[in-house]
């Protein structure tokens, strides 16, 4: 099977792509996985380490063809505030709950969550539901990683065919992600317990045990 071992960042490549790979944000964080494009091109993504493919990036196949990465629009909340100080305050509350967030100058975007929406409105923020591509800020413990459903699927070679429709994975085995309406964190390698602030309204522990020496 033909492989792709390199991601070319948006703006660094030119030419006409051979096909398009349409993925939501969670499915754009990968290391090794068989993937199927919109035009049915099938290839093995085989990177040295897990990385995030962003909208407009290209994957270079070993025969020189390029595969365009397209971010599938997701259900998000766009957040604005009266002034920069209030926006920083809002960002602090989002960070305290380990929610992946995309920064757009004077606005923020997060995945839709009705509980968080109510909290933000209570803080005086203007919140607007939108359908848009989601490219949140990279986390402090890895390039492009956040505390959301960002999992390296390791050596799995099952095929994922992606289109514009939203899909849900319901795997029960440990280490294989599930999609939920609420975004929660996994082990980020920092050695701290990332349990959620009780103000979130319900129990959202991360399900991972951290032993402190």
Report on the structure:
Strand 8 and strand 9 (107-111) form a beta hairpin. Helix content is 10%, strand content 30%. The strands form 2 sheets. It has a 7-stranded mixed sheet with strand order 2-6-5-1-4-3-11, with no helix packed on it. It has helices at residues 84-96, 114-122, and strands at residues 3-8, 19-23, 29-36, 42-52, 58-61, 66-71, 74-80, 102-103, 107-111, 126-132, 160-161. The chain has 213 residues and is mainly beta. The termini are far apart. The chain is elongated.
Largest sheet, strands/sense/barrel: 7 strands, mixed
Based on DSSP secondary structure assignment, what is the total number of beta strands? Answer: 11
What's the overall geometry? elongated
Residues in helices, as a percent range: 10-25%
Q: What is the CA-atom radius of gyration, in angstroms?
A: 18 Å
| Order of neighbouring strands in the sheet with most strands | 2-6-5-1-4-3-11
Mean of pLDDT:
76
